[in-house]
Structure formats: structure tokens, C-alpha cells
Design brief:
The complex is a heterodimer of chains A (about 475) and B (about 190). Chain A has about 475 residues and is of the alpha+beta class. Chain A has four helices and 29 strands. In chain B, helix 4 links the parallel strand 2 and strand 3. Classes of the chains: A alpha+beta (about 475), B alpha+beta (about 190). Chains A and B meet through strand 5, strand 6, helix 4, strand 9 and strand 17 of A and helix 1, helix 2, helix 4, strand 3 and strand 4 of B.
């Protein structure tokens, strides 16, 4: 009974989020177009009434008998199962359940009896074949009830390198494809996390206190494939993915004072320094406008921490706030017309919203202390932030429609620096709950807490908007 | 050490070249078999398979070293300057803080060519982002007071490190009190 209730809840959430997600892709009001109908007749994998579809992902078939292909088949099917499980739209049948079912000889000869027996509604099968420069991956989503193929594609072309083993990305691509085609959901399997880490034990250049240095790192959404992005003998913090997923704006002390930089982790232009700071003109905590043309940031160039906005090349600087208290930590509304930020003008740090020109100021929190507002992507109309509770902080989410905050995390350890997944269904944040400071992700209902990093101290997570294009 | 760095650079370059060569090969793309039973597909050729591309992160390059150590390191290791401490979530100077700054002002008057950087720091209880602004306010408060004592503003730089570099790594009030500070570093002399 408990189980049934649980599924019903998921199904309800599924229905709601489907509608909302579809809304997210529509242009702003006034020029709305009806949702696109898929050009093919879509075969939907359906679960029993009121329950999510049950999906099985047996190990992909290795069509060539070499170690690389066998490893790829194993990895892709395992990662694909985890990717699909992450969004909790399908009931993923545990892979142990069907370990004893012999793999089909090919994708065209699949006996469905055993899969019907274990109650699978959808069967995701695939094959991997070695080619000259990598592998070719084929998958098929089969409706077990009828044997129909709901979706089938073939991929190749990813060069596997030491830094970026390709197998996981094939799985991520298939997962995003299945979520999109089956339920219209923009999955996040191909998105990236950026964060800072002191894992490599670098020390700051200079005489003071033997200080450890944090630099920028990135990883897949699930924490796999972690890679270093910057090497500086100074602190680099607060990475923020540009909306196109190609560059990161961040704060650094590499010139001896705080200033903003933009780095291209996949190559491209050399590192940029749009603010062109001086010791008297320092800038920190950048935030991209949703269209990627502007950056909001904090600066004391006029004597006191205030919010400013500029074009991404550093031109057209405009001041947003003007108050003798601290104004810091900006985040943009999804429409790009408003900015939320932290101000202690009431006597303690709280979250405020203003129009980009500084008008229309509204205080939205009245708690002990709040910081790092981060506006959700549409259609969720929410702001996540850290909120002081007891000796530490928890992550809260403020619903702008109902004007009520709710707790997203518990108060184990210190929890701060929230960042929304691009579909708004998860939040990454920093927590000291496991000892050192580590990156975690949590679902928007407070379930499914996952630890992303484990080595060193890791902080300032930022979730990319979209998968990087080539 | 220098030599090893060079070797690393070459290895990295070689890797990068290998990557870009591999990239230049056109992705293999050939039609997949049409899904059996998908009725809509019966009368036309299937769409060609999607070549998957994922950009490869380039190896990070070391940033230019603009903070090369100089012999003022020795001064800073046994700094003659007194740190200034602050109350929780405050950038106001108390009496003890003003006393420390009076002492520091005397040193700055004696060594009239020294340029110093005042670092503002915060304890770990505040959040990382807000503490950057709070540390900045602390550094600026110390600077403003020193200027009022006659120290030229252009000899006093400020920088905030928020809670990035605690002086005491502990997690109690004794440690936090030491970490809510303005710290003085000789930058040039």
C-alpha cells in the first residue's frame, strides 16, 4: 500500500512537471506557439494505470569481442540505468533482477517472455561495435507488451581520450533522448558541474600562513569525469557557466586583488578579464544574464559593496544598487529583467529583488541570515538560498508565487551555495555533512541526496544550463 | 623542477595534438535499421543516425605568476603589524582594534615607503559569498581609520578573502574570533 501511494505521488509529479516543462520551451507570452507535435507517431511506454513505466536496461551487446568494446557495453548500460533513474520519471527495474536473463544475440532477436515475466514495460537494449576510431553504439527502446520499437538510434564519432572517456557520454546522450521522446522532459545527463577544489594541495605563492589554493574543476552532472580547469597559484572561486555551456566566468585573486575572468574550458579564446580591475576597482561573484550578453557582479569600486551590471566584454557598466549597507551575490531572473541579491540593509543579510535598473526593490526573506540567492530556471518561479539555522546553514527554496519558503536540506553540517539544474528538478550545493566540504545534489522535493565529490574540499558548485555544443 | 615542468608541457601538447587529430576525422554516421513495428516508418527511409559530439576540455594552462615572492617575505613572516579583530557579522572597529591600528600607523610612518595590503577575513559561520563583502568592509574600515591618522591612502590597498583563508582552522569561538580579522601584509617597500 505504501508502495502504491508512493508511485501515485510520482505519477502526479510526473504529470505536473510534464506540463510545466513543455511550457518552459515556449517563447515568452504574446508569441506563443502550440507545442510541437513529433513528426513520427510516438509509441509511449506505459506503466500500469497510475504507475510509472517499469524500464529494464540489460547489458548492451558487445558485437566485437575485444576488451574495449566489452567494457564500453558494460559502462554504457550501467550509466544509462543511473541517468534514467536520476529524474525518477521511470521505475527503473533493479539490474540484479534480470542478471540471469541471457542477453539477446542481436537487437533484432529479442525474446520478450522473460521481460514480461519480470514486469518490465520498456526494455532498453543496445549494442556496441568497435570501429577504427572508437565505438558505434546502437540502442532500441522496446515496448514489451507489443514488441514495438519506440525509439532507436545509432551513435558514433566520440573520440575517447584520457581526459574524457567517451562511454559515459553515449549513455548520457541516450538518456536525454529517451526522456525527451517519451515524456517531453529536458534531462540533464549531458550537463556539467563546475566547482572549486583544493584537492591537488597547491599552496599559495607568498609568505602568509601556508595557505592552500582552490582552483576550478568540472565534472559530469553525476560527478564522473572530474577534470581540472584552472591552474593558478591564487584562489579561483565562484565559477558560473555561460548559458551556452562553453565558458565559465569566475572570481580570482590571481592579480593580487579580486577580479572577474572568463575561461573557455574546451579551448577557444585565451582567458578574458572583462572588468580589467585594479586594486581600487575590484569585482567578484559574477552572474550571467539568461541570454549570456551581460554579467552582474559585486564591486566596492564606489566605496562599498554594490551590485553592477555590464556587457560581457566589460563595456556599459551600470550600477544596480545604491545603499551604504552590503549589497552582494547577484542572480538574474529567467526573463533577465530582475536581479535578486543579498543585502544587510535591514541589519542582517537577507534576500532582496530589484529590477535591473535598481527600481522596484522588494525584501523577500526575514530569517536569521540568508545568502547566495539563485533563481530557478522557468517554469519554476523560485529562488534557492542558504539560510542560517543553529550553528550552520541549510538550503531553502522561496516560492515567489505563494511567497513562502521551504527547507530543501536538513541541518546536518553546514549547507550553502545552491545552484539549480537547468530543468529546475535538482539543486547542487556545498555541505560539510560528511566531514570536509563536498558538492552534493538533491532533488527538488528534498529526496535523493547524492555526494558528487570526495577528494579535498570542494565548493561553489554551478550547474551548466545546456550540454556544451561542439 | 623547471625541467620537469617543460616535460609536462610537451606531454600535454602531445596529448592535445593527438586529440585534435582524432577530432578531425568525420564522425561515422550511417542509417540505422528502422524500428520494427513503427508503422510510420514503413514508407520512407529512416533519418540518418545522429553523430554524437562532445567537446574535449583542453588541459589547463598555468596562470601567469604575478605574485612572485620578493624579499619582503621575510618581513611578512615575522610581521611587525598587529591584526585587527572584529565582532561576528560586524565591520566596526572597537577600542582594541583602534589601538592596534594606532600601533600599525606608527610603523607605517617610520617606514614611509612601505605599501601594505589590508586583508579582510571572516569566520566560517557566515556563507562564503556574503563573507567576501563582509571581509571587504573590514579591510576598508581599517584603511579608513589609518587614513584618518595621516597615512596616505595610496599606500594602503585592501583585499577581501572572505572565509577562504582562516588563520585558525578550528570550529569553535576561539578559532572564529581569530579568523574575523584584518591582516596586514607588506606589498612593496
Amino acid at each position: 500500500m505504501m508502495q502504491l501511494l508512493h508511485f501515485t505521488t510520482i505519477a502526479a509529479v510526473l504529470a505536473t512537471s510534464f506540463v510545466l516543462t513543455a511550457g518552459a520551451q515556449q517563447p515568452p507570452p504574446g508569441q506563443q506557439t502550440p507545442p510541437q507535435q513529433p513528426s513520427d507517431i510516438r509509441i509511449a511506454i506505459e506503466g500500469p494505470p497510475g504507475l510509472p513505466p517499469r524500464i529494464a536496461v540489460p547489458e548492451f551487446i558487445a558485437l566485437t569481442n575485444d576488451a574495449e568494446t566489452i567494457a564500453a557495453a558494460k559502462t554504457i548500460s550501467q550509466v544509462l540505468w543511473e541517468d534514467l533513474n536520476f529524474e525518477r520519471e521511470f521505475y527503473m527495474v533493479g539490474r540484479d533482477t534480470y542478471k540471469t536473463i541471457p542477453p539477446p544475440p542481436s537487437l533484432d532477436q529479442i525474446a520478450l517472455d522473460r521481460w514480461k515475466e519480470i514486469g518490465a514495460d520498456g526494455l532498453l537494449v543496445g549494442s556496441v561495435r568497435k570501429t577504427g576510431s572508437g565505438v558505434t553504439v546502437q540502442f532500441r527502446l522496446i515496448k514489451v507488451l507489443t514488441g514495438q520499437s519506440a525509439l532507436g538510434k545509432e551513435y558514433s564519432g566520440l573520440p575517447a581520450t584520457i581526459q574524457m572517456p567517451a562511454n559515459r557520454f553515449y549513455a548520457h546522450t541516450i538518456s536525454d533522448e529517451v526522456h525527451k521522446q517519451q515524456i517531453g522532459l529536458d534531462g540533464v545527463a549531458r550537463t556539467k558541474l563546475a566547482f572549486t577544489s583544493d584537492r591537488d594541495g597547491d599552496r599559495i605563492k607568498g609568505p602568509l600562513d601556508n595557505r592552500g589554493v582552490s582552483n576550478l574543476y568540472m565534472s559530469d552532472y553525476d560527478g564522473a569525469r572530474q577534470a581540472r580547469v584552472t591552474i593558478s597559484r591564487a584562489q579561483d572561486i565562484s565559477p558560473m557557466w555561460a548559458p551556452d555551456g562553453r565558458s565559465l566566468a569566475f572570481s580570482s585573486w590571481r592579480s593580487g586583488y579580486q577580479d572577474l575572468y572568463i575561461i573557455f574550458p574546451y579551448g577557444g579564446p585565451p582567458i578574458q578579464n572583462p572588468t580589467r580591475g585594479t586594486p581600487e576597482k575590484q569585482s567578484y561573484l559574477p552572474a550571467w544574464s539568461p541570454d549570456g550578453t551581460k554579467l552582474a557582479f559585486t564591486s566596492s569600486r564606489d566605496g562599498n559593496p554594490e551590485i553592477y551590471v555590464m556587457n560581457r566584454d566589460g563595456s556599459g557598466v551600470q550600477r544596480v544598487t545604491n545603499h551604504p549597507a552590503i549589497d552582494a551575490t547577484p542572480t538574474w531572473s529567467p526573463t533577465g529583467t530582475q536581479i535578486a541579491f543579498t543585502s544587510d540593509r535591514s541589519g542582517s543579510p537577507q534576500i532582496y529583488i530589484a529590477n535591473v535598473d535598481g527600481t522596484g526593490l522588494v525584501k523577500i526573506t526575514s530569517e536569521s541570515a540568508c545568502d547566495r540567492p539563485t533563481w530557478s530556471p522557468s517554469p519554476w518561479n523560485e529562488i534557492a538560498y542558504s539560510s542560517r539555522l543553529g550553528g550552520g546553514n541549510i538550503i531553502r527554496v522561496y516560492d515567489l508565487k505563494t511567497q513562502t519558503p521551504r527547507a530543501l536540506t536538513d541541518d546536518i553540517g553546514n549547507n550553502e551555495s545552491p545552484s539549480f539544474a537547468p530543468n529546475g528538478r535538482h539543486v547542487a550545493f556545498v555541505s560539510s555533512r560528511s566531514g570536509k566540504e563536498q558538492i552534493f545534489t538533491i532533488a527538488r522535493d528534498g529526496k535523493d541526496l547524492r555526494q558528487i565529490t570526495r577528494v579535498g574540499n570542494n565548493r561553489y558548485p554551478n550547474w551548466s544550463r545546456y550540454p556544451p555544443e561542439k | 623542477m623547471k625541467h620537469r615542468q617543460h616535460v609536462t608541457v610537451w606531454v600535454v601538447l602531445a596529448l592535445a595534438l593527438g586529440v585534435s587529430c582524432a577530432k578531425k576525422k568525420p564522425p561515422v554516421a550511417r542509417p540505422t535499421t528502422p524500428p520494427p513495428g513503427a508503422t510510420a516508418d514503413n514508407n520512407r527511409t529512416p533519418a540518418p543516425p545522429t553523430p554524437v559530439t562532445e567537446p574535449t576540455p583542453v588541459p589547463p594552462e598555468p596562470a601567469e605568476d604575478t605574485l612572485a615572492s620578493r624579499d619582503i617575505d621575510q618581513i611578512n613572516k615575522n610581521s611587525p603589524f598587529q591584526p585587527v579583530f572584529f565582532a561576528f557579522d560586524s565591520s566596526e572597529l572597537d577600542n582594541a582594534g583602534q589601538q592596534s591600528l594606532n600601533t600599525n600607523a606608527e610603523i607605517l610612518k617610520k617606514y614611509a615607503t612601505w605599501v601594505i595590503t589590508i586583508e579582510g577575513h571572516a569566520d566560517e559561520r557566515g556563507t562564503a559569498e556574503y563573507n567576501l563583502a563582509l571581509g571587504e568592509r573590514r579591510a576598508v574600515a581599517a584603511r579608513t581609520y589609518l587614513v584618518s591618522l595621516g597615512i596616505p591612502a595610496d599606500r594602503l590597498r585592501t583585499v577581501s578573502y572572505g572565509k577562504e583563508f582562516p588563520f585558525d582552522p578550528g570550529h569553535d569561538e576561539a578559532a572564529w574570533a581569530k579568523n574575523r580579522r584584518a591582516q596586514f601584509v607588506v606589498t612593496s617597500k
